Every structure is written in C-alpha cells, then in structure tokens.
Amino acid sequence: MKLSNFKVLTFDCYGTLIDWESGMVAALTPLTERLKPALTRNQILEAHSRIEAMQQLATPAKPYSELLAVVYKRLAEHWGLSVSWPECLTYGRSIADWPAFPDTADALHYLKQHFKLVILSNVDNESFAHSNARLGVAFDAIYTAADIGSYKPAARNFEYMLTDLGARGIEASTILHVAESLFHDHVPAKSIGLASCWIHRRHGDEGFGATRPPGTMPKTDFRFESMAALAAAHAVDFSGN
User: Fold this and answer.
1) What angle is formed at CA 134 by the lines to CA 22 and CA 231, rounded to 5 degrees?
2) Which of 52, 150, 199, 211 has the most CB atoms around its CB within 10 Å?
3) CATH number, residue 161
C-alpha cells in the first residue's frame, strides 16, 4: 500500500491538525492554578477526556463549544472547586484560541496539490471556522458533529461522511483517514473498512492524553509522528512513480 494510491485524505482536526491539548491546558488554567498539589499535564488531560467522552454520549446533539462548558463545570466539581456559568462558557469559546501545530499549514498546502482534503471532526461549525483560519487551506468538504448529531467514535459519523462523499463519486477505497486519536478515529475507521494513517503526535508522552484508551489497539496502515513526516513520505512516494 502506497500513499499515492489514495485520492482523498479525511482528517480529524483536533489533536491532529490543531494542538488541542495545549489549548485545553492553557484555557483550564483558571481551574488548575487553584489546585494543591498541582496536577501534571497528563492528569489534567486524562480527567478532561473521561468527562468529555461521558458528556458526548449523554448529549450527542449538543454543539461542542456548549459541551465543553459542561465539561468545565464537571471538572470543577471533580476537583472540588466552584465556578460560575460565565466561566464555563468562556472555556467553551476557547476553541478559537487553540493553536495549530507548527507543521500543519505547510503540510496541508503540499497535500492539497495531490489530494482532495476533507474534515471529519467532533466540533461545531462556528468553532471550526476559527480553527480553519489557522490551517491555511480550503477543504473540499467539512463534516462536523453538529452536522451529524453525534460524536466520534460513533460509526454513524463515518457512515454519514462516506455516504455524502459517495454521492460525489468518491469511493471508500480511495480514501485514507488521517488522525491522532486511536479511540475517536482509528477504531471506528477500521471497523468500517477504511484505510487509516496514525499521526502519533503524542509519541513522546505516556498514556492517551485528551483521548480515551482505545481498548484493543487497531492496526493502522501508516504511522508518522507529524504531518510534516506524512507530507515528506508522500513526496518520496510520488517522486518514485
């Protein structure tokens, strides 16, 4: 299997293209700076991932920015802290400030010359618009949890995307799904037969950070530690054709 065999790259956004963990940790500072003893970065992220996954199951139609506000409230309660609802809403709006990984825009600009680029994200459209401005490319299609009414890892999200892309004449066999999260993306992608590429951004960290453990480790078709490495591998592959 070669990267140049594919025509469409479908991307998870947060954790793959946007550095959501750094964005989360920064935006959670009003809570975490009140904790004694201080928590490690991974402890903060793991608590967030547990509560977020629970809330996504409980309220699958709630827009992500509003869902994050509830997550902030639940985290405060979990840590024995009191917060106001306006503070929670501020956290939900922090998505607009989450940075892109330094290599993302250049890699996407290169890949856009060779593939159709698609987003499949657990986000709402308004929040993604802020992130999209940081990514530097026009995507050929954008599918959000707000569009679909459920959150990954629900297979429904992938099925919705494949149905719509199929109506545009794009076959599933020509699609490579690119993501960091094993839990949200690779497990469901492989369950419906999609090829997948793991961008292992957390290769230097222990645990799964802002994502949940995947249970059984899925077998991915490609693995790189950055978007830059994916783009470089494709350049080598493409030049050999």
Assistant:
1) 90
2) 199
3) 3.40.50.1000
